[in-house]
Design a protein that fits this description.
136 residues; alpha+beta; 41% strand
Length: 136
Protein backbone atom coordinates (compact mmCIF):
# COMPACT_ATOMS: atom_id res chain seq x y z
CA UNK A 1 0.00 0.00 0.00
CA UNK A 2 1.46 3.35 -1.02
CA UNK A 3 1.43 6.33 1.30
CA UNK A 4 -0.59 9.30 0.15
CA UNK A 5 1.22 12.57 -0.41
CA UNK A 6 0.62 15.22 2.26
CA UNK A 7 -0.30 18.67 0.94
CA UNK A 8 -1.24 22.03 2.46
CA UNK A 9 -3.55 24.80 1.34
CA UNK A 10 -4.78 28.12 2.74
CA UNK A 11 -8.34 29.32 2.20
CA UNK A 12 -10.52 32.06 3.63
CA UNK A 13 -13.72 34.00 3.77
CA UNK A 14 -13.05 37.73 3.37
CA UNK A 15 -14.95 40.27 5.49
CA UNK A 16 -15.45 43.74 4.06
CA UNK A 17 -17.79 46.51 5.24
CA UNK A 18 -19.91 44.14 7.35
CA UNK A 19 -20.27 41.53 4.61
CA UNK A 20 -18.53 38.18 4.05
CA UNK A 21 -17.28 37.00 0.68
CA UNK A 22 -16.15 33.82 -1.02
CA UNK A 23 -16.12 32.91 -4.72
CA UNK A 24 -18.31 30.93 -7.06
CA UNK A 25 -16.27 28.61 -9.29
CA UNK A 26 -18.00 28.22 -12.67
CA UNK A 27 -15.60 25.47 -13.71
CA UNK A 28 -16.95 23.18 -10.96
CA UNK A 29 -20.32 24.92 -10.37
CA UNK A 30 -19.57 25.28 -6.66
CA UNK A 31 -19.07 27.94 -4.02
CA UNK A 32 -15.49 28.01 -2.75
CA UNK A 33 -13.33 29.81 -0.25
CA UNK A 34 -10.74 32.22 -1.60
CA UNK A 35 -7.32 30.59 -1.60
CA UNK A 36 -5.34 27.67 -2.90
CA UNK A 37 -2.44 25.26 -2.55
CA UNK A 38 0.81 26.09 -0.81
CA UNK A 39 3.84 26.05 -3.12
CA UNK A 40 6.34 23.67 -1.53
CA UNK A 41 7.16 24.76 2.02
CA UNK A 42 5.49 28.16 1.55
CA UNK A 43 3.98 29.56 4.76
CA UNK A 44 0.16 29.41 4.83
CA UNK A 45 -0.09 33.20 5.41
CA UNK A 46 2.09 33.81 2.34
CA UNK A 47 -0.08 31.40 0.33
CA UNK A 48 -3.25 33.10 1.48
CA UNK A 49 -2.04 36.60 0.55
CA UNK A 50 -0.76 35.39 -2.85
CA UNK A 51 -4.01 33.60 -3.66
CA UNK A 52 -6.15 36.55 -2.55
CA UNK A 53 -4.18 38.82 -4.88
CA UNK A 54 -4.49 36.29 -7.76
CA UNK A 55 -8.21 35.75 -7.28
CA UNK A 56 -9.60 39.12 -6.17
CA UNK A 57 -6.84 41.61 -6.88
CA UNK A 58 -4.49 44.08 -5.23
CA UNK A 59 -5.20 46.94 -2.88
CA UNK A 60 -7.33 44.94 -0.46
CA UNK A 61 -5.67 46.61 2.55
CA UNK A 62 -5.70 43.63 4.90
CA UNK A 63 -6.56 44.75 8.44
CA UNK A 64 -6.62 41.40 10.21
CA UNK A 65 -6.11 37.70 9.50
CA UNK A 66 -7.50 35.14 11.94
CA UNK A 67 -6.88 31.42 11.61
CA UNK A 68 -10.00 29.51 12.63
CA UNK A 69 -8.94 25.91 12.09
CA UNK A 70 -7.73 23.23 9.72
CA UNK A 71 -10.02 21.27 7.42
CA UNK A 72 -8.68 17.94 6.21
CA UNK A 73 -9.77 16.42 2.94
CA UNK A 74 -8.59 13.34 1.15
CA UNK A 75 -8.20 12.86 -2.59
CA UNK A 76 -7.25 9.68 -4.40
CA UNK A 77 -3.57 10.68 -4.25
CA UNK A 78 -3.19 13.02 -1.26
CA UNK A 79 -4.28 14.13 2.16
CA UNK A 80 -4.74 17.90 2.13
CA UNK A 81 -4.60 20.04 5.27
CA UNK A 82 -6.58 23.18 4.40
CA UNK A 83 -5.76 26.01 6.82
CA UNK A 84 -8.91 28.11 7.26
CA UNK A 85 -8.91 31.87 7.85
CA UNK A 86 -11.16 34.89 8.11
CA UNK A 87 -9.54 37.96 6.58
CA UNK A 88 -10.74 41.51 7.23
CA UNK A 89 -10.03 44.04 4.49
CA UNK A 90 -10.83 47.73 4.08
CA UNK A 91 -11.58 47.53 0.33
CA UNK A 92 -15.30 47.35 -0.47
CA UNK A 93 -15.77 44.13 -2.47
CA UNK A 94 -19.35 44.77 -3.59
CA UNK A 95 -18.28 45.96 -7.04
CA UNK A 96 -15.02 44.05 -7.42
CA UNK A 97 -14.68 41.57 -10.28
CA UNK A 98 -12.66 38.40 -9.72
CA UNK A 99 -9.31 38.25 -11.54
CA UNK A 100 -9.78 34.60 -12.56
CA UNK A 101 -12.20 34.32 -15.49
CA UNK A 102 -14.05 31.29 -14.04
CA UNK A 103 -14.64 32.90 -10.60
CA UNK A 104 -17.21 35.38 -9.32
CA UNK A 105 -16.88 37.11 -5.97
CA UNK A 106 -20.07 36.35 -4.02
CA UNK A 107 -21.47 37.46 -0.69
CA UNK A 108 -21.84 34.67 1.86
CA UNK A 109 -25.36 34.21 3.23
CA UNK A 110 -25.15 32.37 6.57
CA UNK A 111 -28.77 31.19 6.10
CA UNK A 112 -27.98 29.46 2.77
CA UNK A 113 -27.52 25.68 2.80
CA UNK A 114 -23.88 25.31 1.73
CA UNK A 115 -23.38 21.57 1.27
CA UNK A 116 -21.21 19.02 -0.56
CA UNK A 117 -23.38 19.29 -3.70
CA UNK A 118 -23.03 23.05 -4.19
CA UNK A 119 -19.81 23.92 -2.33
CA UNK A 120 -16.26 22.82 -1.67
CA UNK A 121 -16.12 20.86 1.61
CA UNK A 122 -13.69 23.43 3.02
CA UNK A 123 -16.26 26.22 2.49
CA UNK A 124 -18.96 24.16 4.22
CA UNK A 125 -16.56 23.74 7.16
CA UNK A 126 -15.61 27.44 7.16
CA UNK A 127 -19.24 28.60 7.21
CA UNK A 128 -20.06 26.18 10.06
CA UNK A 129 -17.12 27.53 12.06
CA UNK A 130 -18.20 31.16 11.42
CA UNK A 131 -21.76 30.38 12.55
CA UNK A 132 -20.48 28.55 15.67
CA UNK A 133 -18.16 31.46 16.45
CA UNK A 134 -20.98 34.03 16.09
CA UNK A 135 -23.24 32.08 18.46
CA UNK A 136 -20.50 31.53 21.07
Amino acid sequence: MTMKERRRAAQCIVRSHGRMYAVYNHKYNKFAPIGGKCDGKEDTFVTLKREMKEEIGKGLNIKHIKKIGVHQRETTTAIVDVHLFIVDVTKDLRRVTAKEEFLDIVEIDLNYDYNENNSYSSLVDLVKRVIAHKSA
